[in-house]
Amino acid sequence: xxxxxxxxxxxxxxxxxxxxxxxxxxxxxxxxxxxxxxxxxxxxxxxxxxxxxxxxxxxxxxxxxxxxxxxxxxxxxxxxxxxxxxxxxxxxxxxxxxxxxxxxxxxxxxxxxxxxxxxxxxxxxxxxxxxxxxxxxxxxxxxxxxxxxxxxxxxxxxxxxxxxxxxxxxxxxxxxxxxxxxxxxxxxxxxxxxxxxxxxxxxxxxxxxxxxxxxx
Length: 216
Ligand SMILES: [Zn+2]
Prior knowledge:
Elements: H1 22-31, E1 44-49, E2 61-65, H2 66-73, H3 86-89, H4 95-107, H5 112-120, H6 125-132, E3 159-162, E4 166-168, E5 173-175, E6 180-181, E7 185-186, E8 192-197, E9 200-205, E10 209-213
Antiparallel strand pairs: 1-2, 3-6, 3-10, 4-5, 7-8, 8-9
Helix pairs in contact: 4-6
The structure holds zinc ion.
Residues 36, 38-39, 41, 64-65, 67-68 line the site of zinc ion (ZN).
């Protein structure tokens, strides 16, 4: 199981522990004629590692433009129209591009064209199992669970207590140890939950929380 790296929802992501080497980047720029490997736009945002790759180096990476990268990272909403480019990208000869395209089409499969394209797409067994790696039945990236300081899983609606005083940046108060925060909400980051203290919405680090009760 993947751990440590901040996986976004689509599984084709930067892995900060494995910065693209200059050699990898040069290989990718040559492979792609220095264009985004999904939509052919330029200039490219850079190299992204495709999660769960059986390969390493350039074989495990794609070169993306900023538009594609932001949507894959989850920093921007998926815009179905932008992804019409997958009608070409899915036929790429590069497995990392096939895998990234397949995962995106899977996310977009409620769109008829994406659904049809997924049916037509041909990926070798090896590439298909890479594409499916780490994805649950709904095609979501397997999530790193959000847990409190004791390792107890946290869910939306739980109540937690603070196990130390926390200075709330920007709000000019200290949330005292022992404060109960009701009805927390999970975030995309397993180390952060949203909650309200003194009626102020704040982000709480899970390592300073202890679960007190289930959602009632
Ligand atoms: Zn692009």
